[in-house]
Each structure stands twice: as structure tokens, then as C-alpha cells.
Amino acid sequence: MSGNSLKDMLREEGAAKRFTDELRPTEETEVIQGFSFGRVGQRPQLMLTFVKCDGHHLVLPYADLRSITTNEPDKGFLMEFVGREILIEGTSLTICFRYLRDQRLAELVERNLSSVMAAEPGAPVVQKITIRKPRANNGKPAE
Hints:
With about 140 residues, the protein is α+β, with helices and mostly antiparallel strands. Helix content is about 20%, strand content about 30%.
């Protein structure tokens, strides 16, 4: 055979090992990749964790993020994921907005009133995280 078919490549001794060694990043070349090679892959999927004051954690993959909408990124933004909308409200959130846009933020934590009052001036503070289902066609949130 010509050696171009998948079966021929798999018959070669060590072909599978060479393939996985090529995909496995070394310490010098390791980079964050938003989309891996499927659900189970060599590289981790980028995830975003939302932590509410009551301890509720919601972890969603960046791959499901459809849009981030805002008029004032410093005060908050609406994140639309597949099957959910997340409304983030707070102060000095422009840096969080930029990190989310670049898929570099791992966690958004809602602060309680006492920690909001104790925050340094100009520090990004998430005061409220609202998790809801996507809007229906009539503009009201779906129930």
C-alpha cells in the first residue's frame, strides 16, 4: 500500500506512541488551548467557575460561551452560554471583562457585603452573580 491510509499508519510499529508524543506539550511549549481534541483529550478544556456567596459553584466551559454584552464593562456584563445567561454586576470590572474576552479568567467570585465594603478602592469587586435560563423570543427570561 502507499502508506497514506490510516490503517497503514496504525500498523507501523510505534505509530500511536509517536502520535501522542507529538501532541503532548513539553514544559517550554505548553500553551492554553481553548478547544481540545474532543471531550477526552490530551489537553484540558478551559473552564470558568462562578462562585456565589452561598457557596454554590457553577463551572462552564469557555467553549459554550456565545457572547459577552455590556454598555459599561466597569459596572457589569451579560455572558450568554449555551443554555444559560450569567449577569455579572459590580465595580471596576473592566479588567475582568478583558480577561474573560481573552479566556484568561478561571473564576468569578461573588462577594458578600462586608468584603465589598473592605475592598480597596479601584479593586475589581463582583457584587452580584445572577444565573438564569436564556431569554425567550418575547424578551422575558424563560422559566
